[in-house]
Amino acid sequence: MTYEIMADLAGPIQGTGAITMKNVQTALTMQDAILTLQKYWSDNGCMITQPLNTEVGAGTANPATALRVLGPEPWSVAYVEPSVRPDDSRYGENPNRLQTHTQFQVILKPDPGNPQELYLGSLRALGVDLNAHDVRFVEDNWASPALGAWGLGWEVWLDGMEITQFTYFQQVGGVALDPVSVEITYGLERILMNLQGVSHFKDIAYAPGITYGEVFGQNEYEMSRYYLDDADIDTNHRLFESYAAEARRLLDLELPVPAYTYVLKCSHTFNVLDARGAISTTERAKAFSLMRGLTHETAKLWERRRAALEHPLGLAPAPAPAERGMLPKVPGVETLLFEIGVEELPYAEVPATTEAVRESVTAKLAATRLGHGAITVLATPRRIVITVDGVQPRERDTMRTVRGPKVAAAYKDGAPTPALLGFARSQGAEPTDVRVVEANGVEYVAVTRHEEGRPAVEVLSELLAEVVSGLRAGRNMRWSDPGLSFSRPVRWLLALLGRTPLPVVVSSLSASDTTRVQRNAPYPEVRVTSAEGYPHFLHMHGILLDREARRGAVVRGALEAAAEVGGRVDVEGQAGLIDEITDILEFPYAVRGSFDERYLELPASVLTTVMRKHQRYLPVLDGERLMPHFVTFANALCDDDVVRAGNEAVLRARYEDAAFFWRADLKVAPEEFRRRLDKLTFEDRLGTVADRAVRLASLALDLAGRAGLPQDTVEVVRRAGALAKFDLASQMVIEFSGLAGVMAEEYARRAGESPEVARALAEMELPRSAGGALPTGDAGAVLSLADRFDLVTGMFLIGAAPTGSSDPYGVRRAAIGLLNVLRSLPAVAGVRVSEGLRAAAVRYAAQGVEVPAERVAEAAELITRRYEQQLTDAGHEHRLVQAVLVWADRPAHGDRTLATLERHVGSEAFEALAAAFQRVVRILPEGGAEGADLSLLTAPAELRLAESAQAVREALQGREDDLGALIEVSAPLVDAIGTFFDEVLVMDPDPALRAARLALLTDVAGLARTTVDWGAL
User: Fold this and answer.
1) Helix (H), strand (E), coil (C) string for 74-139
2) pLDDT tens digits along 226-241
3) Distance of CA 561 to the CA centre of its chain
4) Which of 753, 761, 750, 751 is nearest to 786 (CA)?
């Protein structure tokens, strides 16, 4: 394929040949970095302002952002903001965490259309060599409950370290933003640590000859002492109330700026109290509600004041709609290539969007008469590529019949009526051209005319525009384009039919024959001259379009990197993470890193969770033992040593944090953590996590009794229940929620609890996913069931049942989990679903929660449907699944019954049994018949049936629900049923005799109704 290179269209960005200490020359000092960013953004149209003179947790809270992004006025600004976060206090010990860190804040309003390119230009200006480093945009959906603000965007990673928050603001103060603003928030300490090659913030060169630690080290220690140990709780509570009252008073005076200042003081005071552990669940909810309400009022007041001032800064212009050019002529059969270029999609949206676009294109093409071949849709985080082979030059011609008025209304006395004349005129026909057609016995006039097929370029330009405008994701956002909404901004369109550019216009976007490749390429935008061989074309530019090829590159790269140190990567166990890595990269490039072996003293689960959750690293194993190595992936070829050093520094800081949490948590007894659960909210209407733990302890004992567990196991349940969920209050689990249960076991063992209690606490959290590991102990099993029965019941009671694809509380996952436990662990198999739900509901009622019976029934129905789905997904025959759903309340027994059915169905004996029972059931009235005088039954066939039924009943005593046993003893009964129907008139004219015969059949049917739903068979 031939192609042409196009110049970078990133506007004013100019590469600076950036330098770093690792690349020989001296990096900027921190003060020079601030001056460089101010100069860069000033040159790119931003006004430079000063930090706020009160504490804020982020540059976002400064009125230059929080208020100025409201309303229609344009606003581009940049400023330094010292950001105070009491909860990040570490006494100056952690390499990366500070209670006061330095942000550089940029607001671009409206979105200029190329904010990512502008941002990367700023990194070049700072000295970041984009060819040596790995710079990535990693999904991050930002929200601030106190500000009533949210937006979608990314964390920007520099060699694995988050250095910037990049957000398209969607709402502030509960007010939707129009136009949308772009927020870029730099973490300067982290950037400078990387550029200067230092491993601790204290070692940053702040100015020539002066380190960061020399300037701010004392501040970090003393303020950490204050926030974590010495802040007076009563004083700060009073301050919070006073600040809130003053904000309220200022709002009443219609002064939004000072009112907002006092909201910020409220927010900081709340953060101080939170760091001191002095905020209860109720206080947290009330404080957030108060601050959110005050911020909303401030935002609305600010908008009104700016409108009253007639928007002194003017109105931000909206992009002009694009206009479609002339349609070209393409006379032959060609391949269609259409690419939708986006800013980095969330990893989960890559496969989801691929499938959605494939379905959309397939359906839309099927609705045309345009002939074509195979449709292929492939995607990366930055592009969705549609290829359609063998596109015909135009649609097929067709004869189209258009029906007009009824014949009776079309003619009067044989002459055309105005109705007929109007119809003919509308179709471009003469009255003599019409003919009569019949529809549903009624005659109409109609016109049949030849309709030419449209050219392919016309069909496709309209169809592809509809595909783009119809893009939707799980969570959608707006940007500068007023006509589009998607997971992330759509920035370019590439459309070729063969070698001919195809004019596709969507809102303000026009398709061209250019695409965008790696941002650090010499020419990031290139011309494509043919629709053929596009995946190979992209590969030449460092992009793997095919997802399977990318995944294969991840697996091969990981295995090869691990093998270099004699290790392995658990490809199967890390399949989910490998999928995620596959969908956040366009060209996976493996880099192996290491960490200090002293961190291996921490639990391996902590180390691997930090790797996977925060950094998307693949752990390297020696057999099953964790090695001090990991594998990460860059998004393109890079300087291995530079990227390795950066990622190792990030992991070192993460492990220092984990070690900090570990040491702090080990100083606290599990009982104390358990008491602290009253400061954590489970769900506002269902109480605190402490309330939940009390319910779980009681419910687990109840279930243990129903399961008939031995006394020693019950005592394990009792003790574990008393500590239930205690680790949720630990610093480690607050930071790494995926370690819930794992840390409970670790901390319980070290606190002197028995191994059985410690293990039960861990197994309470199992299974973690639909196919996840299950408890292995009986105590863990009942605690696991209690956890899931409580969650499912509670969510249904408050009307938070899952709907469609929405299941924010994981109710479906909990239902699947409890089914898996009940189906797999014999010790608890006797626990009925209905009993578990009712027992959970009783405990909610005791807490004062309203318990409508229908809500509990709905929860049971959800679990039944999950059980049905599990059996269907396992490949069992539909009618057999339906037959055993009567055992959804006891799913383990349902499984056994299904296995029995599958062994016997089709056999002569079983088919005879099924036919006999169905014959009985069909003749009975709904609910059966009882209370008749059976002494009236004297005929031999009647007596034989009664005797056979009694014999089966006696044979099944103690195993009435055992289908296998019924089949084994039923042959005489089957014969007796046949004889009965052959010789006896069930529906006898004599009402008493008829009632007696129906009562006998009801008794017979009762023998089978306890096994399966015979009607389903």
Assistant:
1) CEEEEEEEEEECHHHCCCCCCCCCCCEEEEEEEEEECCCCCHHHHHHHHHHHHCCCCCCCCEEEEE
2) 999 999 999 999 999 9
3) 31
4) 761
